[in-house]
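[recover] target loaded
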């Protein structure tokens, strides 16, 4: 019996040793690579945007409508979740990301994209046309999923230099020379309207826009535009400065900025009740040539940029108190970028993003005092503009592509060209 117990104990030892050797011989899964793949998979799903989520919701809803319960009264097993469409290329530098085209089809549209308006992060509209030497019908496209899919139609008139205006409620206006057309059903039907004269005082309402009236470089009136009538009239009161620029849209907190000169000095003014009352803010310092001043803001951070006729930067001012006061952070000179193409974009992390007239992205981390070129894999860019809900980058890659961003840091290339 003792010998048998010893033999059994030896067998147990040999079995334990064999099990250990077997486990050691099995390759362990590459956990680091699995984590990397999981992270990439999450990025692809995020890049798929709201379109994939919307399709999934429709599919699930349809399943529940067709077979809400099994025969025994229990809830059925949910259908398997489909993978999101594969993500496209990602272009990035200096914390700025442009998500490229996904696996979805790209909509081809006649002409070249000239105007893009987003009234919220999902609903956007764009205008495309042809150059004067080869005119073609104006085309209007619309999206309801942030630019993943588009529907477009050619409008029943040919126009060169047409401009698209989007109103907060989704109504649209196209102006081309003396002709103006309005759509009150998101671009499905259009009707010609009179342009209005801009005469008389018109209290602006929530659905109206403020625009610069016609004229030269400065000395412009601030006008009220309405969905059914551009140039409905002048704002209720005038700002106390010589207006050279009017913001394309109100800020998120309802502030509408204008820029110009006052007593020969650069100055800005802001209204928070659509032109009924204005507050004028002079920009400090001497030696700033009088000229157009453009303002961009995000929360308490605001920037005022003084530009010449070629959009070279003459001076840049920063405010940390929502525009109550400004301090000068940059003077004009040879430092890049020498000129701005479109509007500066304040970022949530406190930096400032601009497109230079040399077609490169630049970022400032010191309130506009200095800028560094964002190299990496970011493409060249034509200009940056602000819409009612975010920003649009035009002529990416020098090939007519456009991208939309709600915050200026993460962009989605629109699947239309």
């Amino acid at each position: 019996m003792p010998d048998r117990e010893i033999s059994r104990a030896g067998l147990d030892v040999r079995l334990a040793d064999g099990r250990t050797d077997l486990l050691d011989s099995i390759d362990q899964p590459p956990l680091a690579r699995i984590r990397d793949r999981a992270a990439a998979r999450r990025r692809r799903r995020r890049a798929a945007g709201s379109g994939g989520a919307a399709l999934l919701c429709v599919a699930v809803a349809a399943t529940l409508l067709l077979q809400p319960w099994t025969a025994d009264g229990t809830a059925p097993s949910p259908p398997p979740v489909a993978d999101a469409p594969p993500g496209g290329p990602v272009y990035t530098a200096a914390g700025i990301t442009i998500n490229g085209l996904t696996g979805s089809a790209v909509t081809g549209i006649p002409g070249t994209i000239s105007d893009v308006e987003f009234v919220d992060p999902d609903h956007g509209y764009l205008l495309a046309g042809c150059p004067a030497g080869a005119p073609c019908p104006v085309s209007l496209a619309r999206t309801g999923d942030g630019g993943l899919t588009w529907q477009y139609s050619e409008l029943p008139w040919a126009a060169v230099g047409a401009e698209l205006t989007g109103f907060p409620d989704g109504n649209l206006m196209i102006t081309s020379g003396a002709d103006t057309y309005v759509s009150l059903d998101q671009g499905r039907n259009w009707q010609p309207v009179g342009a209005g004269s801009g005469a008389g005082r018109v209290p602006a309402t929530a659905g109206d826009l403020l625009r610069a009236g016609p004229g030269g470089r400065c000395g412009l009136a601030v006008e009220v535009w309405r969905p059914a009538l551009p140039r409905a009239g002048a704002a209720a009161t005038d700002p106390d400065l010589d207006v050279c620029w009017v913001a394309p849209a109100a800020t998120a907190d309802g502030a509408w900025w204008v820029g110009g000169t006052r007593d020969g000095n650069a100055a800005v003014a802001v209204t928070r009740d659509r032109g009924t009352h204005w507050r004028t803010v002079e920009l400090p310092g001497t030696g700033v040539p009088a000229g157009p001043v453009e303002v961009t803001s995000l929360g308490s951070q605001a920037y005022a940029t003084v530009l010449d006729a070629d959009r070279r930067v003459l001076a840049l001012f920063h405010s940390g108190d929502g525009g109550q006061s400004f301090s000068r952070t940059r003077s004009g000179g040879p430092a890049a970028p020498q000129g701005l193409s479109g509007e500066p974009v304040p970022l949530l992390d406190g930096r400032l993003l601009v497109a230079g007239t040399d077609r490169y992205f630049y970022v400032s981390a010191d309130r506009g005092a200095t800028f560094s070129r964002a190299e990496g894999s970011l493409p060249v860019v034509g200009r940056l503009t602000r819409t009612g809900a975010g920003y649009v980058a035009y002529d990416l890659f020098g090939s007519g592509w456009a991208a939309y961003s709600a915050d200026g840091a993460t962009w989605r290339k629109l699947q239309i060209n």
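[recover] notes: The first helix runs from residue 2 to 25.
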